[in-house]
Specification:
Layout (H helix, E strand, L loop, with lengths): L14 H15 L12 H4 L7 E6 L4 E5 L5 E2 L4 H13 L1 H7 L28 H10 L5 H16 L7 H8 L3 H12 L7 H12 L2 E2 L1 H8 L21 H11 L5 H7 L4 E3 L4 E6 L3 E6 L10 H13 L6
Antiparallel strand pairs: 1-2, 1-7, 3-4, 5-6, 6-7
Helix pairs in contact: 1-13, 3-4, 3-5, 5-8, 5-9, 6-9, 6-10, 8-9
The structure holds 6-diazenyl-5-OXO-L-norleucine.
Catalytic activity: L-glutamine + H2O = L-glutamate + NH4(+)
Family: Belongs to the glutaminase family.
Protein name: Glutaminase
Amino acid sequence: IGLSISLAADELPTKEALKKAAEEAHAKFKDEKEGKNADYIPALAKVPSELFGIAIVTADGEVIEVGDVDYSFSMQSCSKVFTMCMVMEESGAEAIFEKINVEPTGMPFNSIKAIEHGDGRADNPLVNAGAIATVSMIKADSPEQRWKKISDYYNLLAGEELKVLEDVYVSEAETNFRNRGIANVLFNSGNLFCDPLEATDVYTRQCSVGVTTAQLAMMASPLANDGVHPVSKKTFLKEDEVPKVLSIMTMAGFYDGAGQWAWKTGLPAKTGVGGGIFAIVPGKMVIVAFSPPVDQYGNSVRAQKAIQYIADKFEYNIF
Ligand code: DON
């Protein structure tokens, strides 16, 4: 009788092997011409389209960086995951399940139809409606306190002080009529839990926080390490909340492009219309890529390809 148990699943590739894979991905996709900067937030149209950076943070805290890794881009919808984690810690994961729900919409990230078709809840915390509702769930007595809680939490995750990119914030705040409409509709049906304009404004601010690829990977690292930050060793999420976060990312992280991402890459991930994407390899690492041109769903074309390349190389598809 032979019995062999493979420990390979728990092993991490060497730093050199990860760096080589990231360099290969960068070289392979840097000239990719598909996609276009988002321009419904005017400041995003001005970000140089050729920027392309990749960073990996492993579950033991190693950092790998390739390409344009010093550029601070706005987190945009990547922020939605972190605020959801904060609210889960403050009010319990069930509060998200009950007040927002955890179903994919199959519709664009800023869909108004999506909040009209069901019971009035926002469907999930990763579309705009759900993210604005998540912000409204934070226990706060003032808009300043609501924002400070988010900002302090993001800084703790990053391990350093992050700054709002004021030009991006002002540009979105001047043009976010659609999000204000969504917040008002949710409030009207009892599915938003503070003043709708306050929730929209604080949400807009969190979307405008600037990060480098490595800072974003650092922020997401507890999700690849059972809720514990691999560098600060601080627990950000209860161990049983991590799979819940990853399940929502799998269903809704790419909006109406979530199915094809799961099909091709098979990793829970979240995108932002600024061009950033972070993907979680559970128990192993966070893979981040950033490049501004996005596809029809608002997801960075080069970043998707780079992450898929690295994930394929190490056979990290979770399905
Ligand atoms: O609310 C918005 O439209 C933006 N601040 C964020 C949207 C976004 O990042 C969509 N994702 N890819």
